[in-house]
Amino acid sequence: MEWIWILTATILAYLIGSISTAILVGRLIAGEDIRSHGSGNAGATNALRTYGKKAALLVLLGDVLKAVVAVGVAYLIRTLADVDEELWRPMLYLATLGAVLGHNFPVYFQFRGGKGVLVSTVSILFVDWRIGLLVIAIALLTMVIWRFVSLGSMLGAVSYLVLSLCFHWGDWLLLLQAVLLSGLLIYMHRTNIKRLLSGTESKLGQKKN
After folding, report:
1. Is 207 a member of any domain?
2. pLDDT on residue 206
3. Is residue 98 part of a domain?
């Protein structure tokens, strides 16, 4: 019966993750769909290039907040339903995946969302804040040096998987979550990979035509 709570937490995380901040901000600021501009991505980077810094900040804060709320709901369910530690771990991992899937494939917006970088980052911090801080440092350093947000995001995803293998070997549920989360993030950047290889990827601070 306790597995019902795990399913509930995952579904609620997905529904909360499906609230696309970038799309809502685009409609509020310009009365249009951000997915029709720039890279077509519903995320903070495209908001920065399309609408400017204030809009990007709103998207960033909104995406972080919804990720915190989505995983926070799982913590609330754990407390109210008195879920034991054995079931709490899969509940946490599935809730993080649910939030990211909601952001990437939002049920409220034709399943066309963002790439899940911010939501994934918050999810990693909930799973292991020490690894999360290392992942953030690696991603930011990459962005500063090469000025490619996509490259920093993907290297962050790879570093999460590598660090999880190093520090959580034997925790197969966490490693499975790391594989799925990292693989999903890289998959969502597949067009960026093509542009990086062809030399047409936009750099940080560069307006996208």
Report:
1. no
2. 65
3. yes
The identity of residue 88, as a single letter, is: W
Is 86's pLDDT higher than 90? no
Domain total of the chain: 1
CB count within 10 Å of CB 56 equals: 20
Residue located via tokens 């799309």 = 23
- Asked if the structure places residue 206 within a domain, the reply is no
Determine whether 79 is exposed, middle or buried from the number of CB atoms within 10 Å of its CB (0-12, 13-18, 19+): exposed
DSSP 155-205: HHHHHHHHHHHHHSTT-HHHHHHHHHHHHHHHHHTHHHHHHHHHT-PPPTT
Spatial contact of 159 and 121, defined as CB atoms under 8 Å apart = no
176-197 per-position pLDDT tens digit: 999 999 999 999 999 999 999 9
| Percentage with pLDDT > 90 across the chain | 88
Domain that holds residue 111: 3-198
Assess if residue 124 is contained within a domain.
Answer: yes
Smallest Cα–Cα separation from 51: which of 192, 202, 208, 204? 208
Please identify which residue in the block is written with the tokens 């960033």: 60
207: confidence class by pLDDT, cuts 50, 70, 90: low
